[in-house]
Write a structure and sequence with these properties.
The chain is α/β, with parallel strands linked by helices. It has seven helices and nine strands. It has a single domain, classed as Rossmann fold, CATH 3.40.50.300. It binds adenosine-5'-diphosphate and magnesium ion.
């Protein structure tokens, strides 16, 4: 069975005007696959990632994760799903500036009620493999964009989720850190057999992924 199966997915935003962000979207993603979701601005990339991540309820359709339809989960079950099975990475890093790098990476594990010794071992291991160990006690604002995004990768991997969703992860990075961050993100996900979905139009990312899913801009 495919790891992620999306069937007849619709996301329609209701406001003064109705916006169709996703219209009858269907897709299947294998465990361990690295895919890019491409499409012009407004084509629904963020909406799609948010639906897969359990952050946004689709208007209709099904999203099966390892055979379980997450659109049918209760609020409590969705909290668990997001905490244990999904890691999110954003364009603007989304770190907590009042927390040290150590605390940022520890936080998802604290929420998951892991033991102090387990958290300590895992934070140190993650910071080491992402080559940011020297920043353990530093705060996010003192790091470069590329370093902050490496911390964000560590946060996303903290609870060892099967799915990593990255929304334009290189959007705020310069050329050099862009390559470094993407090489690390993709190699980590490949080694750990994570399913990685990246919303992007970055040609550098396009060269390194398994497959592209194109979201055409809907004509309204
Ligand atoms: N919270 C929202 N309320 C109303 N419309 C939205 C909302 N979020 C996104 N949209 C609209 O849905 C469409 C798809 O947006 P989005 O998923 O952010 O696309 P992308 O990430 O590809 O730029 C756009 O037309 C956008 O304006
Ligand atoms: Mg977007």
């Amino acid at each position: 069975m495919k790891h992620i199966i999306i069937e007849s997915l619709y996301k329609i935003y209701q406001g003064t005007v109705e916006t169709v962000a996703l219209e009858n979207f269907n897709e299947e993603i294998d465990k361990g696959e690295v895919v890019a979701v491409a499409g012009p601005s407004g084509s629904g990339k963020t909406s799609l990632l948010s639906c897969i991540g359990g952050v946004l309820k689709p208007t209709s359709g099904r999203i099966l994760i390892a055979g379980i339809d997450i659109t049918k989960l209760s609020d409590d079950e969705l909290v668990e799903y997001r905490r244990d099975q999904v890691g999110l990475i954003y364009q603007d890093f989304n770190l907590i500036n009042e927390f040290s790098i150590y605390e940022n990476v520890a936080l998802p594990m604290l929420i998951a009620k892991k033991s102090k010794s387990e958290i300590d071992a895992r934070v140190n291991e993650l910071l080491k493999t992402l080559d940011i160990q020297r920043y353990t006690k530093t705060f996010p604002n003192y790091l470069s964009g590329g370093e902050q995004q490496r911390v964000a990768i560590a946060v996303a991997l903290a609870n060892d989720p099967d799915i990593i969703l990255a929304d334009e992860p290189t959007g705020n990075l310069d050329l050099v850190s862009r390559e470094n961050v993407i090489d690390l993100l993709i190699s980590k996900c490949k080694n750990l057999n994570k399913s990685l979905v990246i919303a992007t139009h970055d040609p550098f990312i396009m060269e390194r992924i398994d497959r592209v899913i194109d979201l055409p801009k809907l004509i309204r």
